[in-house]
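A favour between colleagues. Tell me how you read the following sequence-structure pair.

===
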Amino acid sequence: MKSVTRQKNLEEIIRMLGKARKVSLVGCGTCPTMAETGGLREVEEMARALEEREVTVASTTVLPVACEPLPDEARNGFRSLLGEAQAVLVLSCSLGVRMVSDYTDLAVLPALDTLFIGREAEPGFFVEECAQCGDCLLGDYAGICPIVHCAKSLFNGPCGGSVDGKCEVDPGLPCGWQLIYDRMKALGRLEELSVIRPYKDWSKSLSGGARRMRIPVPPPEKKSEEG
């Protein structure tokens, strides 16, 4: 699974830069490289585009994984790379932008929009698979998410617009509920679809603000009193 991104409009990037006229560019060697939005080539292209708009590019680099924390020694090297930059423009998912902002006091700005978590169905073509809703429903729908695959995120069967297994919102898309029905039938679980599902508890979603999860930490082992 990958964080799927797309590049922001250059005018939007120039607006975010404000008075900053000397910037460092940071790309990511994983998801954005695969999506062709923030790899080495895209960083170089962004550098040329900014230079044409009279924005000096102080440095360019592509981190192996922008969303993974750098060790202390590598962080010091990264700070040195920024030189006299007035801002840092990051070509990665939003998590990579947040991670880079921990390494510097400079303004750290996103060059990409983070769209969704998805898989590469075919070379260069990504399909959303998870909306990170905070309350996974895959167990009730045979591994197919109705929030993602139904254009209306319906929980209790298809709408009246589904025709020949296609979605009324986009006839090029398969109806999510047709996918669920076919899968449940193949598994011998069709009777489960007769159960009316309650409204989703959206308090577990992004509407509740930035989500946090604490992982239980085992208590330290007591030292033996012997010796």
